[in-house]
Each structure stands twice: as C-alpha cells, then as structure tokens.
C-alpha cells in the first residue's frame, strides 16, 4: 500500500476524535467533552476529556481507545496514569485523551484551563469509519 492510499484510508483527526468520544460514552464515561485547542496548545490539536466510574473502568477505556486508534491509523504514542489510576492520559499526538475520576477532574478543571477552546459536537456521530 502506498502512502497516498494509506492517507486516504485514515479518517481525519476530527473523525477519529468523534469516534473516540462516542467510545467513551458507550463505555459509560460521563461528561465527555471534545475541545479544539488548535492555536491554543503547542502540544496537540484536540483534547478529549471524560470522567470514569472506577479505576478498572478507566483502564479498560484506555485499552479500548488504544485499540480504536490502532484500527483507524492513529496509534497510541504514549499512555500514562497516576499510581491510583485516578487520571489516565492516552496520547495520540494530535488528540490527547484525559480520563479522570470525578474529584480529580474537578480539581484540575481542564475545561476552565482551555475555556477559549471551541467545544466539538460529537454526540450521535455516524459510526462509519470513512473520513
């Protein structure tokens, strides 16, 4: 496969991020937010945030996100979590996903940090993997 056909087969980063947001919701993460931080962050283009219900659930969501990314051509660059798994970061370079337990999400308030970032509507995005 040539790089041109590979690029055509890879959905846009926006499409990947909306599918990732839907995956979080499907796996029972709460208060899922997808934010466009282009021009505001030097690290990534999009930030996806979700609140988990338990450390086990958050670990499972992180694993499923990595699988989704690999299937769609967005391999996970890195994944980190604190010792208690109250904050898990899954880095796809263009998209960084933050999974929090409720109190830590409130404490770090990333939505307030990126208050200038437009929120991207992802609910009920079509399930097709095409770009």
Structural notes for this entry:
The chain is of the alpha+beta class and 131 residues long. It has one domain (3-113): Beta Polymerase, domain 2 (2-Layer Sandwich). Helix content is 38%, strand content 21%. The chain contains five helices and five strands. It has helices at 3-9, 13-26, 55-72, 102-108, 110-113; strands spanning 30-36, 46-51, 78-81, 87-91, 95-100. The chain has a five-stranded mixed β-sheet. A hairpin with a 5-residue loop joins strand 3 (78-81) and strand 4 (87-91). The longest helix is centred in the middle third of the chain and has 18 residues, at 55-72. The chain is globular. The two termini are 18 Å apart.
Compile the SSE list and pairings:
Elements lengths: L2 H7 L3 H14 L3 E7 L9 E6 L3 H18 L5 E4 L5 E5 L3 E6 L1 H7 L1 H4 L18
Parallel strand pairs: 2-5
Antiparallel strand pairs: 1-2, 3-4, 4-5
Helix pairs in contact: 2-3
**Structural class, please?**
alpha+beta
* CATH superfamily placement: Beta Polymerase, domain 2
Strand fraction equals 15-25%
Taking all Cα atoms into account, the compactness measure Rg is 14 Å
CATH topology (fold) name: Beta Polymerase, domain 2
> Main β-sheet, in a few words?
5 strands, mixed
What percent of residues adopt helix (DSSP H or I)? Answer: 25-40%
Architecture per CATH nomenclature, i.e. the level-2 architecture = 2-Layer Sandwich
Total count of strands = 5
The number of helices is 5
Name of the CATH first level: Alpha Beta
Span between termini: 18 Å
Overall 3D shape: globular
Strands ordered across the widest β-sheet? 1-2-5-4-3
Whole-number count of domains: 1
* Average pLDDT taken over every residue: 86
The low-pLDDT segments are 1-8
Order of helices and strands: HHEEHEEEHH
């Amino acid at each position: 496969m040539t790089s041109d056909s590979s690029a055509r087969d890879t959905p846009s980063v926006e499409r990947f991020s909306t599918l990732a947001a839907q995956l979080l919701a499907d796996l029972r993460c709460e208060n899922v937010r997808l934010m466009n931080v282009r021009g505001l962050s030097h690290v990534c283009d999009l930030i996806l945030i979700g609140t988990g219900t338990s450390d086990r659930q958050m670990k499972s969501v992180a694993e499923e996100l990595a699988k989704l990314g690999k299937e769609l051509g967005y391999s996970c660059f890195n994944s980190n979590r604190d010792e208690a798994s109250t904050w898990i970061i899954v880095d796809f370079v263009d998209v960084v996903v933050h999974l929090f337990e409720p109190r830590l999400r409130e404490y770090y308030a990333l939505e307030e940090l990126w208050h200038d970032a437009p929120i991207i509507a992802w609910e009920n995005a079509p399930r097709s993997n095409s770009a």
